[in-house]
Amino acid sequence: MKVVLDHLTKIFPNRNKKGSDVVAVSDFTFEIPDGKLIGLLGPSGCGKSTTLNLISGLETPTSGRIYFGEDDVTDLPPENRGIGLVFQNYALYPHMTVRQNILFPLQNLKGDARLSKEVMEEKALEAAKLVQIQDYMERKPAELSGGQQQRVAIARALVKMPRVLLLDEPLSNLDARLRLQTREEIRRIQRETGITTIFVTHDQEEAMSITDMIVVMSAGVVQQIGKPQDVYDDPVNLFVAKFLGTPAINVFEGRVKDGKLYIGEDDVLDLAGSDIFSEELQKADRPVWVGIRPEGFIPDEAGMMNCGLTAVEVMGRDTSVVCTHSAAPGQSIRAIIGAEYKVDESKPTVNFRLRPNKVYLFDKETEKRIY
Amino acid sequence: MDKQNNKAWLYLLPAIVFLGIFMVYPLVDVLVYSFEEDYNFASQTYSGTGGYNYAYVLRDPYFLQALKNTLILVAITVPLSTGIALLISLALNSIKKLKELFQTVYFLPYVTNTLAVGLVFMILFKKTAYTDGLVNLVITWFGGSAVDFIDGPYWAKMFVLCFYTIWVVMPFKILILTSALASVNQDYYNAAKIDGTSKLRTFTRITLPMISPMIFYLVITGFIGAFKAYSDAVAIFGTDLNAAGMNTIVGYIYDMLYGNSGGYPSFASAAALILFAIVLTITCINLMISGRRVHY
Questions:
Q1: H-type helices in A57-145, by residue range?
Q2: Exposed site from A297, B71, B197, B266, fewest CB < 10 Å?
Q3: Which of A162, A186, A166, A164 is nearest to A174 (CA)?
Q4: Do A223 and A170 reside in the same domain of the chain?
Q5: How far is CA B219 from each of CA B207, B209, B225, rounded to the nearest angstrom?
Q6: Is the CB of residue A141 less than 8 Å from the CB of residue A173?
Q7: How many CA atoms lie within 13 A of B33 on its CB side?
Q8: Would you say the C-alpha torsion A69, A72, A73, A76 has a positive or negative sign?
Q9: Which residues of B touch A84 (CB under 8 A)?
Q10: What is the model's pTM?
Q11: Which residues of A touch B197 (CB under 8 A)?
């Protein structure tokens, strides 16, 4: 089932008379293809959870429409939309066993939709098997680990075979190891059922690792939509570039002049004569934000980028070089270099040359990407 | 380890001393009195020991009347007050406008003096030479005949007492239940909404189990409180409760202690222990039931 969001906007009126209304989601238009796993990604307060609530029907949009397939569901109450929702805290009913929790949505069905007891039990068991919780059917949620509770919550959301599965920060209550394991699990379950799934997260690693597509949001506005790798490689603005990737991208104040890119006094990159930089940019003379991914640095004695060396952290597979630069005051720069390069820790400075495809230029005012 | 223990006892000492002197010792004393016949406070003498006090109290028509009154009061007021409090709390929880105002209004009886409230009830119910009381005015307005609620038939008096008791205990229950309802995580309701749970089912399958510990707490304390009822009856019917036929067990104990110049501490002790036995039994039954029904 594809999900279409058409100019979706949600404005929360201000509680008191003073102050302005809060625009939680602004003009969100996106067609989520059938059977895909989509991640809504953004810092807290960016409107991603509100978007999810709009799709689930727990909130009504101020304007805009929502379609599931060809059906306009904007005015339907949540129960008639055919969705399954997994809450951040799972919201398992603590006084019911796992079985009762999973059965609960089925027992709510009325009239023709109501199933016989045997079929209900069968479906509940099926859902439990899908999330591999079938051995714990008679336990109460409090007797389960966090990861197991998560599975029960997913089983409960899936038991009615929803058209769309929504997950609100599904992994944030789990510890790091369980998180890795559970995200694989979510991916597997989504593949097996083929249900269009939308999940909300503020963890970019989580979003990138399992989704087919990510939607990066900030302050209610969609910044970029695309395949995780594409968004990482090709961010449209400084926000997206900063938000994706660990360690984060390094940002410098720089200048394009005479076909060269300057960071501070160092002319770090030659733009002239290269076919990847536009002619306009090669001729330009303007201040820019320069974003360089950690993997964009190559230690080179002859390199033009000169940084003060703070520390070298060897992490086995690769090495992390922490340094400073006058064009990025107050922040430390992190470069990830391959094990084949060596950096002399005793020296006060280190020189790099840059990989042009890991360097991004952003407009100083709009922060939009210009290269 | 031993040193640690000594220290612990030292810290516990003040509480133990006070509890011992003012709680444990009197309790034991009451137990002793209840088996001593004709105990006299002044001379500290008694004529014999045995179960005579219990036999006397259990045959005393005043005690039996008090027991009957108390049981009726408990049976009517505890379920009714808890049920009505739950309904009011649900209503309070679902309104947005004027919520604080209503919460305050419903809490007012709690901070109002029992005897002042008793006075108000007199005005509402008492028949005097000049007026039949407000309630009777309403009854006659609708074509009924006036009833004397204070000195009239037994059921009318019991009605006033129950009404009064329910009204007095309600605020605390509403307070507890509204906060219990408010503390149920909204996500449970959202989850139920998404699953298309009907309002009634949401209430019976989610809300009620979630607040069941609080409900049982209120039922147990309600039982104990109602068994100990006394001041309410005094507020309405005056101090001579036996004459009004509206005495309660605690009222009976009080009369036995201080009534008729000198009193009968042995009978009072026996009655107190009978009350204790009843309350203990009921509370145990309550706990047994709640152990099965309260889920976490």
A1: 98-107, 117-130
A2: B71
A3: A186
A4: yes
A5: 17, 15, 10
A6: no
A7: 21
A8: negative
A9: 194
A10: 0.75
A11: 79, 104, 108
| List of chain A residues with pLDDT < 50 | none
What pLDDT digit, counting tens, does each position of A295-325 carry? 888 887 777 777 888 888 887 778 888 888 8
Q: Is the dihedral of CA A336, A339, A342, A346 positive or negative?
A: positive
Is the domain spanning B57-111+150-293 CATH 1.10.3720.10? The answer is yes
- CA-nearest residue to A83 within chain B is B194
CA A154 to chain centroid:
20
- Partner-chain contact A94 B190, CB within 8 Å: no
Chain A hits for B96, Cβ within 8 Å: none
Domain of residue A259 covers 250-363
pLDDT of residue B296 exceeding 60, the answer is no
Instruction: Give the start-to-end residue ranges of the domains of chain B.
Output: 57-111+150-293
- Rounded to 10°, the helix A117-130/A176-193 angle is 130
Identify the CA nearest to A238 among candidates A74, A148, A365.
A365
Using the Cβ of A56 and the Cβ atoms of chain B, whether some distance falls under 8 Å is answered with yes
Region class of A35: left (phi > 0), else alpha (psi between -120 and 50), else beta: left
Nearest Cα to Cα of residue A271 among A295, A252, A248, A288:
A288
Residues A30 and A176 in one domain: yes
Q: Does A108 touch chain B (CB under 8 A)?
A: yes
Find where tokens 């020991």 sit. Answer: B49
CB contacts < 8 A (A, B): 58
Average pLDDT, chain B: 84
pLDDT at A277: 67
CB contact under 8 A, A58 and B206: no
Which pLDDT tens digit goes with each residue over B23-32? 999 889 888 8
Number of domains comprising chain A? 2
Kindly indicate whether the ipTM for this predicted assembly is greater than 0.85, answering yes or no. Answer: no
A223 touches chain B (CB under 8 A): no
Task: Test B195 with A108 for CB contact under 8 angstroms.
Answer: yes
A332 domain residue, yes or no: yes
